[in-house]
Amino acid sequence: MSRTRRARTHPLAARQRAVRQRAVRHRAVGRPAVRHALLGVLSIAGAAACQAPMSIFTGAGDGGRRVSTLTWFLIVAAAVVYVGVMALFVAGMARNRERDPASVDLSERGTGFIVWGGGVMPAVVLTVVFIAGLAAMGRFPAAVSEQAPRFTITGHQWWWQVDYDDPALPGSFTTANELHVPVGTTVRIRLISADVIHSFWVPGLQGKIDLIPGDTNEIRIHAEKAGTYRGQCAEFCGMQHANMAFTVVADPPAQYAAWIAGQQQPAREPTDSITASGRQLVTGGPCAMCHTLRGTNARGQVAPDLTHVGSRLTLAAGTLPNNAGTMEAWIANAQLMKPGVRMPTLSQFNGRELRAVATYLESLK
Ligand code: CUA
Known about the structure:
By secondary structure, the chain is an alpha+beta fold.
């Protein structure tokens, strides 16, 4: 087979030819500009309609709906301004096509349009947008009772510490990267930072708010529907900023009460020889220096509390789904999965030990 012949029959070459032919047909029959504009509008509409895990358009609570209304308002306002400017631009070009550039009137009378169109109009539009934004921001759920549950979230590079320290709870506890809230109840969250500025953002439930070192902020969220809402750190905070996600789980009241009662318990006792050896390795080894497992002698304070780590949806702040396989991989080589993370790579466990540690941690529901 000659070189050219091989190139002609190569599957990629055939595909490229098909694409090129389609492009030619496209140019011949359609108006690509119109089609692209239509595609743009459709993709915005699609993004609005789809149940994406983290969409600004699917507000599920008072705060989230306000954000999505404001977003739509901004999109429509920007589209109206864009179409208006483009229409004037095209009209101006059409009108002055034959005109001699030297005859353009640059006196004060001739620049009135620039003052209005370039100064006054933008000032009006930007003021309206600013006021609309302020109004949306100012309308927090106003009537939040003093009895409303109140928790504390601390931002760390790159995970979220969640303290259920509401005085109304019979006992406080700490968890990580997952916040459970009762459906239909406004919850107050105090936000602090342990290191740099982070930003707490669950687009389905509320706008963004920063976690600032040395300062305390408060946000109120209200989930109307049961389900999980993905959140993400929205302020660049270092190497693994992108892998600093969290989940808000809105539970029906009975389920929420059961979850609280479960989390208040100390870590489960091992039920077999594998989990027993796993606990031995966790509490007697390097894990205990950074992590706490309530009810054991692991009392480290610098890393996520692992007392009920098996009950969580994700590992490493939304980086991995939580199961025995990802747990093993994470322990064996955290630096590969989340480079720069404070968790060291623990290469001292052999295969059997690694399996035991992961099995034990996954049993901690
Ligand atoms: Cu924390 Cu970005």
